[in-house]
Specification:
By secondary structure, the chain is of the alpha+beta class. 24% of the residues lie in helices and 23% in strands. The longest helix is centred in the last third of the chain and has 21 residues.
Length: 164
């Protein structure tokens, strides 16, 4: 993915703009780079029993992860859908409800939804790993903390746009 400007303190926001090589690699990855799975189903390195939060736009979701201080390389299952400009964050099954009322957030629940997911180390343009768990060892972002971080990121963006 795109590299952070400051390699000592990489940020999620730095992953928003793809460099030309990454763009081409994801855009032309081929059909085997992604697949549709039922929400909650085990796939690739993700164990069974999860729900998904789709946060739009992608920049908003990345800013929220930066607000939380979630490390880029900590193995949290986080996916970018560059085509829809959404951040997909996997959470433990039953934990997605704190974000259900937020505008621009879709909750994909187990047994009711399907999700396009990356296969392999990178995935494709519409489902690319930003943070990939190790085999069977998914760590999940706390949905309540993510909700608060989305609200903080929105407030900061609003303040910034008023100052400009």
């Amino acid at each position: 993915m795109a590299k952070s400007q400051n390699s000592a303190h990489p940020s999620w926001a730095a992953l928003l703009d793809l460099d030309s090589d990454t763009y081409a690699r994801l855009r032309y990855a081929g059909r085997s780079a992604t697949d549709m799975v039922a929400v909650g189903q085990a796939w690739d390195t993700v164990p069974e029993g999860w729900e998904a939060l789709a946060v739009a736009p992608l920049a908003r979701g990345l800013a929220a992860l930066d607000c939380l201080g979630v490390p880029l390389d900590a193995g949290f299952p986080v996916i970018a859908d560059h085509g829809r400009s959404e951040l997909i964050v996997l959470v433990e099954a039953g934990g997605a409800h704190p974000l259900a009322e937020l505008q621009g957030v879709r909750v994909l629940r187990r047994g009711t939804s399907f999700l396009l997911v990356p296969f392999g180390p990178q995935g494709g343009y519409n489902a690319a790993w930003l943070s990939r768990p190790t085999q069977g060892m998914a760590r999940y972002v706390d949905p309540s903390a993510l909700r608060d971080a989305v609200l903080v990121a929105e407030a900061e963006r609003s303040e910034h746009s008023r100052a400009c």
